Amino acid sequence: MGPVAAQAPPSEVIRQGHVPADSLFKLLYVPIEVPAGTAEIRVQEDYNRQGGNVLNMGIYDPAGYRPGTTAGFRGWSGGAKTSFFINAQTASTGYVPGPIHSGTWHVLLYPSTIAPSGLDWKLTVTLVPGPTGAAFVAAPAAATVNNRAGWYHGDLHMHTLHSDGRRTPAELVDEADAQGLDFIVSTEHNTNSANLSWGRYARPDLLIINGEEVTTTAFGHWNALGLDATTLIDWRYAPQDSMIATHTAQVRALGGLAIINHPFFPDTINRFQFGVRHFDGIEVWNGRWDARNEQALRWWDALLRQGRPLLAVGASDTHTAASSPNQLGRPRTVVQTSSLSRTGIMQGLRARRAYVVADRQLTLTLTARATGPAANIGDTLVVAGGQRIKVAFQLRGASAGTIQLLGATGVLATSPVAPGGSTTVRWQLPVGLPRYLRVEVRNPKAICSS
Ligand SMILES: [Zn+2]
Ligand SMILES: [Zn+2]
């Protein structure tokens, strides 16, 4: 498969313009007339890179391009590519193969960095006539791997060549296997192109869940987890447009979850600006543990104190191969579910039956009880006045560090991690409601949290 061979001379359309510095983050739609009989569209983007200019790119077909509709969506590569092609059977990664309908297509340009002198751009669009090739056949991943209840290890955030990652989908699946992951969620920036083909890379024991990293440079990133392969969640709105509720509701209507990603990355721009009330969870641990993750954890904890319990997740956000520090499955979210399936994982996450660990050898259990049955991670424990809560915590796979039991008033108890690789701690709390309980385990190299 590849670009179609031209049977008649291709035609070329050139569009160019200047984006002044005050047009940062403004969406620019460049119309392209596509005649009947076109078999393939090729787009080449050129712009001056001086001053750190970045011009993101995507394309819509005649079915529609306006914000609020994704009917005409045919792909997005952000700042990761400067050229792409689409034909009936195949397309560049990030783009959606299918019929090349005649009519007005729109190339979307989105400047996310502009030098004071502005940005000069040029699009060279090549329209290749010819017969339509064989139709693209979508092959989404199976929604269920097994119906066994358990705690499953997953990575909720990653990128391949379908956005700005460096791996092929096949390499990513190989690595998921090698890292002992039970499930992964595909979260490319602003495109569902990878989701249309995960079935081609399926492994019998690996669940691949469709997702999308809904990405704006201006207002932050969030993950839509648990989508249908054909669904794209639009990203073209600002906090003041009051559109975020509609889009997170769209995710929930599919049984999915909306998670705020790396809310404090990077330091200068990109801080998360949509209202937290629209979201189900926060990625408190993204890639390698650092001060910005610490900030995200504090924010999540502050929300817990306010009586707003959100799901906390950790994920690698991996973009590069196994040898990189940003490795698939580090950290990972471990989820309790009744089945290894998209529905099961989403239900487990929604119920907050989940914990986050640095890597594959770490597992834990946490229970709390008063006089009745024990509550597990994610459960609500009902405590009558005057009853004391007993907490049991078990950690495997760590042989150094400190365990802290935390509640709304701060640290409730502290214990060392036993050197042998398995630690069991029991605490009895003084009378009085802690409102919530959580555990953090830290050592100089790693942290895990539940
Ligand atoms: Zn991101
Ligand atoms: Zn990401």
TrEMBL record:
Q: What are the residue boundaries of the Polymerase/histidinol phosphatase N-terminal domain, all occurrences included?
A: 154-218
Q: Which domain of life is it from?
A: Bacteria
Query: Which keywords does UniProt give here?
Result: Plasmid
Any stretches that span the bilayer, and where are they?
none
Keyword Glycoprotein in the entry? The reply is no
Known CDD domains for this protein? Answer: PHP_HisPPase (cd07432)
List, alphabetically, the InterPro entries matched. Answer: PHP_domain, Pol/His_phosphatase_N, Pol/histidinol_Pase-like
Q: This chain belongs to which protein, by name?
A: CehA/McbA family metallohydrolase
* Source species: Hymenobacter volaticus
